[in-house]
Amino acid sequence: MTESAVAPDHLDVVIVGAGLSGIGAAYRLQTECPGKSYAVLEARDALGGTWDLFRYPGIRSDSDMFTLGYPFKPWRDAKAIADGPSILRYITETAAEYGIDRHIRYGSKVISADWSSETARWTLSIARRDSAGDTIRTTLTCNFLYACAGYYDYDRGHAPDFPGVDSFDGRVVHPQFWPEDLDYAGKRVVVIGSGATAVTLVPALAEQTEMVTMLQRSPTWISAVPGRDKRADKIRELLPPNLAHRVIRAKNILFGIGFYQYCRRRPESARKLLTGLTTRILKDEKAVAEHFTPTYNPWDQRLCAVPDADFFRAMKKGKAEVVTDHIETFVPEGIRLKSGRVLPADVVITATGLRLLAFGGITPSVDGVPVPLSEQFVWQGAMLTGVPNFAVCIGYTNASWTLRADLTSRLVCKVLRHLDANGYAAVVPRPDGELGPRPLLDLASGYVQRSIAEFPRQGDRRPWKVRQNYLIDSVTTLRTDLSKTLAPLSASAPKPKVGANAR
Q1: What does the alpha-carbon distance between residue 33 and residue 31 come to, in Å, rounded to a whole number?
Q2: For 373, which of 33, 203, 289, 316 is 20 to 30 Å away at the CA?
Q3: Contact 260, 299 (CB under 8 A)
C-alpha cells in the first residue's frame, strides 16, 4: 500500500456506505441541506450494500417494501415482500433519479477517522484502488461524518467450529459468501440454522434439490405472511401513486406496531395465535410442537416471516424437512446428530448467522486518542457521547430498518442546520446526569448477544433511550430541542471527554 501525495479533499459531510441507508441519507442531505458538499464512500465496487453483497438463492426482504422502501419514492412492484434483485434495482434507480450516484466514490474503505479539536474537522484515512488495481492510501477531511454502514460485518460471517468437518466428503458453504459455481440440483442439502436466512434458503433450494433439511438446535418463531398485499393493490387502484404509497405505508406501520405490542403485552395469546396458524397450514400438531414452538416469547428475538407460507408448503410437498437436534460430528456422508441419526448430505450450508461490527468497523478517535465505543451512550439513536460531529444510522429491530434510518437522516440534517444557524463549529451530546446503561439492541438473538458488549449503550431515559416505536419517534425526534443536550464546541476548544457520563 502506498501513500498518496495529493492534498486531501474537504467536504461538508461524508456518508459512509452506499446501501439502502446511505442512499436515503444522501437524498435527505441534498434536499434538506442544499448547498452542502458531500460524498458517499463505498468500500465495494457497487452500491446496494446487503442487497448487492448477498447472492444466496431466494434472498428477499423480511419487511414489507412499503415501509422498507423510501417514503419519498413509492414502491411500485407487485410483491410486498420483495426479492433481493428487485430491491437492488430500486436502490439503484433512486440513486440515479436524484443524482446521488454522481457523489459515490467506490472502492473507498475508511481505515481510520480522527477528529481534530484544533481545526474542528475529521481527517479520514481511506484505502482506495487505483486503475492498475493497486491499493493506495488517501486522506479526506470533512466537517461532519455520518456512518451508514449498518452493524454487520460484511467480511466475516459467524462460523462455529464444527467437529469433524474436515472429514466431510461434500461441500460446506456459508450463505454470506455464496459461490457462483455451487451445483445443488438433485442433491441432498442440509441447512444449519433456523433464522431468516435459513427459512429463506429452504424453499428456494427445495425447488431443485432431492431433499433439503433444516437442522436447528431449537425452534424459531416463523410466521406466514402474504407475499402480495391485496389491500395495497386496491389502494393503488383508487389513489394516485404518491398518495397511495403514503396510505399503504401508514397502514403497514400501524399494523406492525400493533402486532409487536400485542406480542410483548400478551405473549401467551401471541404464542397460541402463531402456533395455531402454523398448525392450520401444516395440519400436524406434533410437528408444530416439536419444531415450531420456541421456549422464548414472540419478539424476544426477531420474528421470521415467510411469504405465502413457501417454507411450510415445501415441507408439505415432501421436498423439505425440519430436524431439531444437536450436531455430534460431521462424518464423510453427512452429519451425525447426538440422537444417533445421520443426516446424509452432499452440501451443507451453515446459515449460522452474522457477526456484528460497529459502524462499518470505524473506531473514531479524538485528537489521536481512540474513543472506547462501549463506554459511550447513544443520543436519539444517532450521535455518540465523546465524539463531535459524528452520527450513526441504526434501524429498528422490530420493524423496517428504513423507518428509523430515514428519521435519523432527517435529524442529522436538523443538527447541520443547527450548527449553521448558531455559528457552531461542532456539537457533541452530553447527558445532564448519570445514565442507567442498557444494551443498544435489546434482542436475545445469538448474533446480538455475541457482540453487543462492543457497541455503545443506550440510556434509561429520553433522549438516550433507543425506542422501538416509530409512532412515538416520528412525533418526537424532529421536535428535539438540540440546545438542551448537544454541547457546542468551537475550533481550538478543549478536547471533549470520552467517558460514558461526561458532563
Answers
A1: 6
A2: 33
A3: yes
Which of 54-63, 149-158, 225-234 is predicted least confidently? 149-158
pTM for this predicted structure: 0.90
In this structure, the answer to whether residues 395 and 264 fall within a common structural domain is no
Beta-carbon-side half-sphere exposure of residue 439 (alpha carbons within 13 Å): 13
Give φ, ψ of 483 to 5 degrees.
Answer: -70, -20
Same domain, 177 and 325: yes
Digit-coded pLDDT (tens) for 347-370: 999 998 777 777 777 889 999 999
**Which conformational region is residue 283 in: left (phi greater than 0), alpha (psi within -120 to 50 degrees), or beta?**
left
pLDDT in tens, 379-400: 999 999 999 999 999 888 888 8
What's the half-sphere exposure (Cβ side, CA atoms, 13 Å) at 208? 9
Sign of the alpha-carbon torsion through 108, 112, 114, 119:
negative
Are 102 and 47 in contact by the 8 Å Cβ rule? The answer is: no
Note whether 384 and 272 are same-domain residues: no
Query: In sequence order, which ranges of 266-364 are alpha helices (DSSP H)?
Result: 267-282, 285-291, 310-316
CA atoms within 13 A of residue 320's CA, in its CB half-sphere: 23
Q: Say if strands 38-41 and 104-105 run parallel, antiparallel, or are unpaired.
A: parallel
Distance CA 320, CA 226 (A): 21
| Contact (CB, 8 A) for 377 and 364 | no
How many domains are contained in the chain? 2
Calpha distance 333→237 (Å, rounded): 54
Q: Over range 184-189, report the average pLDDT.
A: 96
Position 458 in a domain:
yes
Paired with 329 in beta bridges are 336
